[in-house]
Amino acid sequence: MSDTRWKGRDDAAESGDTRRLHQIVRTESTGYGAGDAVLLGFASDAGVRRNHGRPGAAKGPDAIRRMLANLPAHDLERFWDAGDVTCEGDALEEAQHTQGRKVAAALGAGARPVTLGGGHEVAWSSFQGLAAHLEEEGGAPPRILIVNLDAHFDLRSSRPGSSGTPFDQILEYGRDHGLPVRYACLGVSRLGNTKGLYDHARALGVFYVEDTDMQERHLSERLQQLDVLLAEADLVYLTIDLDVLPAGVAPGVSAPAAFGVPMSVVEACVLAVKRSGKLRLADIAEMNPDHDIDQHTARAAARLVWHLLRP
Predict the structure, then answer these.
(1) Distance (Å, rounded) from C-alpha 57 to C-alpha 50?
(2) Residue 34, class by beta-carbon neighbours within 10 Å (0-12 exposed, 13-18 middle, 19+ buried)?
(3) Is-contact 99 129, C-beta < 8 A?
(4) Would you call the peptide bond into 118 cis, given omega within 30 degrees of 0 as the criterion?
(5) Residue 181, helix vs strand vs coil
(6) Residue pLDDT, tens place only, 93-133
(7) How many helices (H) and strands (E) in the chain?
(8) How many angstroms separate the CA atoms of 58 and 42, rounded?
(9) φ, ψ (nearest 5 deg) of residue 32
(10) What is the pLDDT of residues 160-180, one digit of tens each?
(11) Any idea what DSSP says for residue 257?
(12) What is the rounded average pLDDT of the residues 244-272?
C-alpha cells in the first residue's frame, strides 16, 4: 500500500475519541471476519474507453481513499483495505473475474464488501462475486434486488462488455441461471439514454425513476417505493454511479449530469437500503480525479462510502 493513501490529522492531544479512518484501517488483504467492512479497489478505465467515455476512473479508488483517510471514525472500530485489482490495458474480463473472486471471498468470510471504482463495469465484477458466493452457499436462490443510483440504465446489449452493459449482463446471467434478479435504477436522465434503452428497460421489467422525480420534494414518495422494493427482496446489492449527482457536486465523472439528483436524496436512499438489513455488498463507480474540481467528487464519494463502512 502506498503511504500517501492513508494519511491524516492526529488529534491525540485532544480529549475524547479523536480517531480518524487512517488510524483504524488495516491494510491487509486477509484477516477480516463476520461483520467487518472491507474496501476492494477496482482500478479500471477499460469499460469507459469501450463505452466512448472520458478515461481517468482507474485513479478513482486512491482518490476516494485519500478523502476517506481524514474522516472521523465515530463508532467504527476498524475496517480493512484489501487493495486494488488493476485492469491492465483492455484485459477487462480477466480483471472482472479476479475482482469477482475477491468479492466472493469477502462475502464468504461474512464481511461487508464495499468496492471503489473505477468505471461502472465494476458492477459486473461485483455481481460475479455475489453469484459465486451464492452458488457456494447452496440452497434456494434468493430474490436479489439491485439498487442502482445512476443517470444511465447501463443496459446496452452490445458485447464485449463495457461500462454501459453491466446490468444487461447481470439480468442475462439471472435468466440463464435461474437467479431471480430485480433491477431498480434511480435517477435516470432522459437526456442520457436513448428511446431504445428506455424500451429495453421496460421489456426487461426494470423499475426506474427519472432524475426530475428524484428531487427533495419527491423524497418521501421515493423512500416509500424503495421500502416496497426492499420488502420484496431477500438481499440487496447497492451500486452508486457518481454521475447521478449534479455536475456542480460531482464534476469528476465520465459523463457529468446537467441536472442530477441532490446529494441529500442520494444519501437518504443509501441509508434506507442500509436500514433494511438486507445489504450484502455495495460499490461506487465513475470517480474520475482527472476531471475533478477542488476534490468535490472525491469528497462526495467519501461521504457515501463513510456511511457504507459504518456498522
Answers:
(1) 13
(2) exposed
(3) yes
(4) yes
(5) strand
(6) 999 999 999 999 999 999 999 999 999 999 999 999 999 99
(7) 10, 9
(8) 7
(9) -80, 160
(10) 999 999 999 999 999 999 999
(11) B
(12) 97
